[in-house]
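WARN no homologs supplied; continuing
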Amino acid sequence: MNPNEQASMTSCLKFSVLLLACGACAGAAEFRLGIIGTDTSHVPAFTKQFNDSSAPGFIPGFRVVAAYKGGSPDIAASATRVDGFANDLRTTYRVQIVPDIPTLCSMVDGVLLESGDGRKHLEQARQVIAAHKPLFIDKPLASTLADARKIARIAQEAGVPWFTASSLRYADLSRVKSPDNTGVNVWGPGPLEEHHQLSLSWYGIHAIELLYAMMGTGCLTVTQTSSRDSDVVVGVWKDGRIGVARMSRPYSDYGVVAFRERNAVVEHPLKVDYAALDAKIAEFFKTGAPPVPNQETLEIFAFMDAAQRSKDSGGKPANLQ
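OK structure emitted
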């Protein structure tokens, strides 16, 4: 058993004790969820899946009961939406809006960290981990590789399980995902946000996660080429496969081309499926086992960090750190 597997098993064992302590084991009352950050459309979409029994794909046994608004005044997409989504939670789903994260943690069994601003995630996650609450962290996990690693470290030290994932990871990839693939091209939207040090972490993370869902871990070097309208990132994996992600501005749909020895298979357009992601989130809160290994998430951030270094150097290949 390697150190990562041992740490994961230790976290799961500790989480089992937490479940028993909070009464969230099988046959107990609903698992109470709290939301941090009401500045993204994911908030009402996810809450609907857990709170509205008439919703397609409704997930029983869970309920969002409290939310902390948060928000970032220097990001327009946050400042202009945080109050509206909070009001929607309060009036439509009877979610209590609370003044701070410690209050939220005292009311719930698990946390959905939804703040759109990755810069805030380390400090917000630190408070949740200190309260020993399992947490799902919505994209982006952080705005830097250093912050992503700090979140992973403090969670591991506390024995608190966490995971993050894009909904694109759970799109229907059955036609294109195969061990016979010799390489993959993916594409998706790539708008930028000036405050995020890793430019891909703001929105390009969706396409990068899609690439990793197809390719798996093991990337060695990354090269990024950028223009006003798009970013193109090329990764070389240790087995020789090449994965390419193209992010277009202002927006585009999502798609995949899987290359095989004699042909290529295309899946387009890919449907964003919040219900499938929410089902994975619910499973995680029941078991404490991250459906996306934390080490894979950290490699994705190392990939984006290498891409940023390549971009900053004028397109020279950069090694993953």
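The first helix runs from residue 3 to 22.
OK
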